[in-house]
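Q: A reviewer asked whether we had any structural model of the full assembly, not just the individual parts. We don't, so I'm hoping you can provide one. Inputs are below.
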Amino acid sequence: MVTQITSFGRSGLYDWMMQRVSALVLSLYTVFIIGYLLLNPDLTYDQWSGLFAATWMRIFSLMVLLSIGIHSWIGLWSISTDYIKATGLRFFFQSLCGFVMFVYVVWGVQVLWGL
Amino acid sequence: MLVSIYRYNPEVDDAPYMQDYQIDLPEGKDLMVLDVLNLLKAQDTTISYRRSCREGVCGSDGMNMSGKNGLACITPVSEAAKNDKLVLRPLPGLPVVRDLVIDMGQFYKQYEKIRPFLINDTPAPAIERLQSPEEREKLDGLYECILCACCSTACPSFWWNPDKFVGPSGLLQAYRFLADSRDTATQERLSDLDDPFSVFRCHGIMNCVNVCPKGLNPTKAIGSIRTMLLQRAT
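A: Here is a predicted structure for the entire assembly that you could use as a starting point for your response.
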């Protein structure tokens, strides 16, 4: 058993599962957005803002925002443990990633609910 | 044919270098890479490499032949040489002792970690612990591993974290004991593997499957371990 305290869920299985679940959410959202844009070639501002005003769309988008945060946290954490061997630098990089992801999630919430 | 060999003798050399040898191979015969090395060894006795059974059973002569890991004794020159040139290097990722000989210590440490022996705390029966043919069948494709290290040293996850990631070979063996109906330590074995490195550092690139000289599939075994962990935790 390898001890880890900076990984997302501190369990390999949990991180692995979250990585897959978040990937599924992200791909569903991508397919949905591309499909929506293709089916509405003459998209107006009102239609677009109406879509994002719907509660289900906000739930879906917030889920995607959180998924991006989780997915990139687990991914970048893996990369940093592979390539950054100096502990101080690795911890700094991981903290920076955590901070950036937190900023993006808060900012995203502001964008979603500020429409 | 031109044979380029990785040379390094830490007692004499400051840094490793590639040494080229020209060799005439017998016509109409496809030699194995190990045969070529033996011929070269007759020319230059300082070339060092491990070999023993010369028939793909002992796993001693694992090396990197023109970029691909494999056993020199069962790899034909026609398969390993590119443009009439054969490049021989030690297995990547582990410290080089000399020339093509590597220090397998880290590899064995990971193997030791998974406790590669049957654990059964019930009293031993008078004759033997019986298995049904179906239970025995589950060990096929797992027990055949000869620990040549071709797979683990072809795995980038093992290169970057050889101290934390068990590696394809160790995990294949881990599953061999998880799948064994006679083993009673399944839960402890799974608990030992449930961290972000031991199993989950595998990203499924399947280099291990690509190079295994015995045609085994460590990626599949790793997938089975994940399934067992998931079934236990959900």
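A: Points you may want to mention in the reply: Chain B touches chain A through 19 residues (CB under 8 Å). Residues 105-233 of chain B form a domain with the Fumarate Reductase Iron-sulfur Protein; Chain B, domain 2 fold (CATH 1.10.1060.10).
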